[in-house]
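so im writing up the methods section and need the tRNA (guanine-N(1)-)-methyltransferase record in one place, dumping it here so i stop losing it
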Amino acid sequence: MRVDVITIFPDYLEPLRLSLLGKARDRGMLRVHGHDLRDWTTDRHRTVDDTPYGGGPGMVMRPEPWDAALRAVAGSDGPAPRPRVIVPTPAGRPFTQAYAAELAAEPWLVFCCGRYEGIDGRVVEAWADDEISIGDYVLSGGEVATLVMLEAITRLLPGAVGNAESISDDSFAHGLLEGPVYTRPPEWDGRRVPDVLLSGDHGAIARFRRDQALRRTARRRPELLAALDLDDRDQRVVAE
Ligand code: ADE
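--- predicted struct ---
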């Protein structure tokens, strides 16, 4: 997968060299190019923003540098493959595990990181395929949201995570929150690991884990359960 990120703070992309993302890049599964939006300004002060039409607080990013950057990075003419252009914004569609899986299947993504009050609506309308929010809170810009999305997407690229099962067991993979996990020692600070996990009975362990996931989801995210087709056994566990 190829990823381009346009931002006025390319240094924000340094964490993409670390850990799972860094390894995916080293292995050639992920190619990331950062671009400084100010490279497409034409004035001496390299201005990217201006006051909002209609009044109000803050500044808005001007359309011209964005259009020039997107023409250069994403290409505007010819039959060549076009990337999926994404604008992170708190006003976007919610980012979910399913959305991450959809984006992981794309060959080429371009993230446009806005700052201030956002990017001029006309250039967003002209270029963006998706406007995406990572949650109901406001960040200072799209850079951290882009890092979040890229980590979720990269984990889903074939072969990026060592053990494919660890992806299919993740919270949300079955629409449920994952229950607690344990490792050695079997007793720590007077607290024992649940006996069933030491039993070697794989059927009992799978049932135990599902019950834990159901109970945790019922307590913390009841709205997720409503979207699932629970059988009678699951219903009993949830009702306990
Ligand atoms: N930019 C600022 N806040 C954001 C959010 N919650 N999601 C995506 N992009 C953002």
